């Protein structure tokens, strides 16, 4: 599998899509900072509850603030990244050399999750530097141990985003076409942002809302220190989603015909 990962690294580095993603990831925190500067100029200040990121300390929440953009970016990237393997027929090359479908699937999943981790690190790091220089590092109200808060939030946000990315990988292996993967991944992203809220209006089913990872990304206020109490549940839901999506995606891929 290490050989597959090395091959994927070389393939990504030589492709335009990877560098386009890298460029957009770098631009994202810069854009958010410029947007905040504009808001600060006209409104006289930033409000943590509304803006989520107001200084260097709160910049750990930039992945949350930009979560929909990050998810849509990976929605498109993964659809092309995996879909092209099927449409061009290059998937037959490693399989014909004896690579198991499980290793092939896990390689693609590992690359996708690795890029997600890199995105979270870059976006967080650049945001902390940028917002720290412009607005000062400051602090998070009510947080006594910022180091613990930082790492718990960083790992949690990565896990929530990684769950969505794992679903995109599964969808791409199930549809085996770029266009279909794009459509269904987009439908999933928007649907999981809206459907869970419906359960809040049904007596006895309110708790179902919190078994969807995007519910935490869209509806939970991470600016409150009490959010740390939800970390175990968020991590459980995230990694269960990754596991279930991967099992479904792999089983579908395992039984499909490669044309």
UniProtKB/TrEMBL annotation:
The chain crosses the membrane at residues 18-37, 57-83, 104-128, 148-171, 178-199, 234-253. Pfam families: ABC2_membrane_4. The keyword Transmembrane applies. Keywords: Membrane, Transmembrane, Transmembrane helix. Signal peptide: none annotated. This is ABC transporter permease.
């Amino acid at each position: 599998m290490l050989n597959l990962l090395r091959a994927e690294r070389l393939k990504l580095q030589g492709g335009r899509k990877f560098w386009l993603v890298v460029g957009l990831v770098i631009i994202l925190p810069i854009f958010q900072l410029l947007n905040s500067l504009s808001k600060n100029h006209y409104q006289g200040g930033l409000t943590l509850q509304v803006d989520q990121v107001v200084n260097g300390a709160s910049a750990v929440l930039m992945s949350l603030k930009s979560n929909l953009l990050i998810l849509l970016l990976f929605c498109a990237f993964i659809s092309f990244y995996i879909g092209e393997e099927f449409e061009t027929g290059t998937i037959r090359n490693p399989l014909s050399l004896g690579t198991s479908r499980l290793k092939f699937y896990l390689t693609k999943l590992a690359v996708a999750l690795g890029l997600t981790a890199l995105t979270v690190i870059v976006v967080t790091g650049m945001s902390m530097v940028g917002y720290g220089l412009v607005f000062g590092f400051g602090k998070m109200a009510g947080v006594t141990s910022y180091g613990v808060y930082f790492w718990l939030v960083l790992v949690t946000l990565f896990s929530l985003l990684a769950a969505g990315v794992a679903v995109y990988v599964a969808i791409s292996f199930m549809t085996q076409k770029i266009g279909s993967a794009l459509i269904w991944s987009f439908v999933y992203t928007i649907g999981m942002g809206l459907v869970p809220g419906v359960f809040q209006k049904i007596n006895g089913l309110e708790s179902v809302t919190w078994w969807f990872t995007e519910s935490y990304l869209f509806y939970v206020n991470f600016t409150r220190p009490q959010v740390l109490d939800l970390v175990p549940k968020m991590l459980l839901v995230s990694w269960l989603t990754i596991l279930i999506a991967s099992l479904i995606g792999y089983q579908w891929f395992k039984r499909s015909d490669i044309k």
